[in-house]
Specification:
The complex is a heterodimer of chains A (334) and B (347). By secondary structure, chain A is mainly α. Chain A is 37% helix and 1% strand. Chain A has a domain of 186 residues. Chain B is mostly beta strands. Chain B has a single domain, classed as Methylamine Dehydrogenase, Chain H. In chain B, strand 15 and strand 16 form a beta hairpin. The radius of gyration of chain B is 19 Å and the shape is globular. Classes of the chains: A mainly alpha (334), B mainly beta (347). At the A-B interface, helix 10, strand 1 and helix 11 of A face strand 23 of B.
């Protein structure tokens, strides 16, 4: 996302944002997008002239510098082609638009779920009851004591194990780094049998039909062959939910979104939340509510938050007023 | 870009700043009250601030405000007095005597009321339209020590210890004679920690409060569920602590709040030495200015919104056994660009 907003925009707003075909960045308005394209993708590297389209730049290079433009600068690997005439949002192939929308929707629900998980708030417009809400767990003192004892025993066991050098069958906490296969993609690897978060609106028109041949775009009109290498150069994009059940090998790495680089894919830590969601769906409780020790985050917060001034009853001015240099004694002055 | 320049006042107070305020007209007169027992009057012209006069007091001055004209000031003193100062002649008149230091003083031009708040847990209200100076003020008892005071065209907000907030109706205060009127509304602060500053919106719709725990709350006066549901609070003026100190946040008090008289956006100044501009409607931070060398003690917009004055001095922090603002107290004036403080409004 270009700009982080304080409030969280809803999915329609996100989908309405114009975005750049060449690098998938989205913008507040069309004007910004066009100036972005002129500056990033349609700028002549010889003389700095900003053209309106890739074709325009090609002609300019040809006529002014006697050179041939072969690819669009700063573009994603599979979108460097000159054959598509892009100006702002015009000219973007329908299938690419659909892919983009899907990604936005995907990211939106990932981020929403993440926020929900983090805050326990129901989604906007809902008064609760839906979605994973934070449970306030009431424990009796016996239960707390028992949990403490369990935790201590566990820590002791871990220590012992560490001393012995034997690995413990510890369930990795959800906050550990993403696994190598996930690391490359801001998306979770397709999970057979786990459709993307419940409640996400289905965009059935975009879902690939089961059995569709790889490379074909489902019910979308096929691009004419003259459409150039772009559509075919795009790797098969799995849909969410992925009906095929099995991810094509190497899919995550080949996804066009992966090539976007930092900042392009939304939701840092999306892997974590994906895992949380998957765990929730599979009925596994996240460590926080289980027997695990309190999440280190909250502990750190408590320990780390240091107030520069922390007297909640007496103001700094009152303290200063008591210092000898400022003190006022009525009798002395009277 | 419209120009925006910042310059420093050449003869700042010699000790900590308690308050600074611009005159409400466009004369660009700036009053600064200081713990060095003086009130300073500056005149701001295009790109410089010159000291016009300074007025000595018996004790540190905790607050200052302009009166009905830009030639009259009122001060709140550690010596428990509320004084009127004729800025031309320097004549001082004692208007009120509290039994403890006077923390805040506010003048409401629309109702000709002078209100002072003291650590003796009272408000003194002077109606300056009818009575002579000699008349006794109306004394309103408060349930806690007042720490901040602000007035909008029709309301007066008093923030006290124990998170108490009382809102008074100024017309009621103006018509009250002997019996102290009860507050128009009593609220509990939205912030969990000691209130540091209060500022009312110039459009009379609500107010903002800040606390010692790096947080600002925005609330509306109107006592309907819809209006009350709009209130919000946010964290600010915090810094990530270095990892070797255990990480987490260093949380600074938000010492100063000031609303822009024209655009209704507001500025906050914190113990971290930064000033941020906020759009209360859109709930966005518009700007954060470069860090100042010391904590921001007070902020004030000029009556026409052209200048923002920033008073900086070392902040009093927990654990300090002494305090000295000598040589480290400075006043900066920022000339705002045309649209620098203009909010975008709600989307």
């Amino acid at each position: 996302m270009g700009k982080k907003k304080r409030g969280h925009p809803d999915v329609e707003e996100l989908l309405a944002r114009p975005w750049c075909y060449y690098c998938e960045r989205d913008f507040e308005d069309l004007k910004l997008l066009i100036s972005h394209q002129k500056a990033k993708h349609f700028k002549c590297e010889r003389c700095g002239k900003r053209l309106n389209t890739a074709g325009g730049l090609s002609v300019h290079m040809n006529q002014v510098h006697k050179e041939n433009l072969t690819s669009v600068e700063n573009a994603l690997a599979n979108r460097q082609g000159l054959d598509i005439e892009i100006f702002g949002m015009e000219g973007v192939p329908e299938d690419i638009i659909q892919q983009h929308n899907q990604r936005i929707i995907q990211n939106f629900y990932t981020a929403q779920a993440e926020r929900q998980a983090a805050t326990g708030n129901p989604p906007r417009g809902l008064s609760g009851g839906q979605g994973p809400t934070k449970k306030i767990k009431m424990e009796t003192s016996e239960e707390i004591k028992k949990r403490l004892a369990d935790h201590r025993a566990k820590v002791a066991a871990q220590k012992e194990a560490a001393a012995n050098g034997t690995p413990l069958p510890v369930v990795p906490p959800p906050a550990t780094g993403p696994s190598p296969s996930q690391a490359a993609s801001p998306f979770p690897p397709p999970q057979p049998g786990f459709p993307y978060p419940a409640g996400a609106p289905a965009y059935p028109a975009m879902a690939y039909q089961p059995g569709a041949a790889p490379g074909a775009f489902g019910n979308l009109p096929a691009r004419p062959p003259s459409g150039g290498p772009v559509p075919s150069a795009l790797p098969q994009r799995p849909s969410y939910p992925y009906p095929g059940g099995v991810a094509p090998p190497g899919y995550p790495v080949a996804s066009p979104v992966d090539a976007l680089g930092p900042g392009a894919g939304k939701g840092p830590g999306g892997d974590d939340i994906d895992q949380l969601i998957r765990m929730a769906e599979a009925g596994i409780k996240p460590a926080k509510t289980g027997e695990e020790p309190p999440a280190p985050v909250t502990e750190k917060k408590k320990k780390g938050m240091r107030m520069v001034y922390d007297d909640t009853e007496v103001s700094p001015e009152e303290k200063m007023a008591m210092l000898p240099r400022y003190r006022w004694v009525e009798e002395a002055a009277a | 870009m419209a120009p925006s320049t910042q310059f420093e006042v050449s003869q700042p107070p010699t000790d900590a700043i308690s308050s600074l305020v611009f005159s409400s007209d466009s004369s660009h007169r700036l009053l600064v009250s200081s713990w060095d027992k003086h009130v300073y009057l500056y005149s701001i012209t295009d790109d410089q601030a010159s000291l016009l006069n300074k007025y000595e007091h018996r004790a540190p001055v905790l607050d200052v405000c302009f009166g009905a004209s830009n030639n009259v000031a009122f001060t709140a003193g550690m010596d428990r007095q509320v004084k009127r100062i004729n800025l031309t002649t320097g004549d001082q008149t004692v208007l009120s005597k509290h039994s403890e230091p006077v923390r805040c003083v506010v003048y409401s031009p629309s109702h000709s009321l002078l209100i002072s708040a003291s650590w003796d847990n009272t408000l003194h209200v002077h109606n300056l339209s009818s009575s002579s100076d000699a008349s006794e003020p109306l004394v309103i008892p408060l349930p806690g020590k007042p720490h901040a005071l602000s007035s909008s065209p029709t309301k007066l907000v008093v923030a006290m210890t124990a998170r108490l907030v009382h809102i008074y109706d100024l017309p009621v205060l103006a018509s009250a004679t002997t019996t102290p009127p009860s507050p128009w509304q009593t609220r509990e602060s939205s912030l969990k920690f000691l209130t540091r500053a209060v500022a009312c919106m110039p459009n009379d719709a609500g107010y903002a409060t800040s606390s010692i725990e790096g947080r600002v709350a925005v609330e509306w006066f109107e006592d309907t569920p819809e209006s009350q549901a709009r209130k919000y609070a946010f964290k600010c003026h915090r810094q990530a602590a270095p990892e070797e100190e255990g990480g987490g946040d260093i949380v600074y008090p938000v010492n100063a709040l000031a609303f822009h008289p024209v655009y209704g956006t507001f500025a906050s100044g914190g113990g971290d030495g930064t000033v941020a501009l906020w759009d209360a409607e859109a709930k966005r931070r518009m700007r954060q200015y470069q860090k100042f060398p010391e904590a921001v003690a007070s902020l004030g917009f000029s009556g026409d919104g052209k200048y923002l004055a920033i008073g900086v001095c070392p902040g009093f922090e927990t654990g300090m056994e002494d305090y000295d603002g000598k040589g480290r107290t400075r006043v900066f004036v920022r000339e705002l660009g045309e649209t620098e403080a203009k909010g975008k409004g709600p989307k």
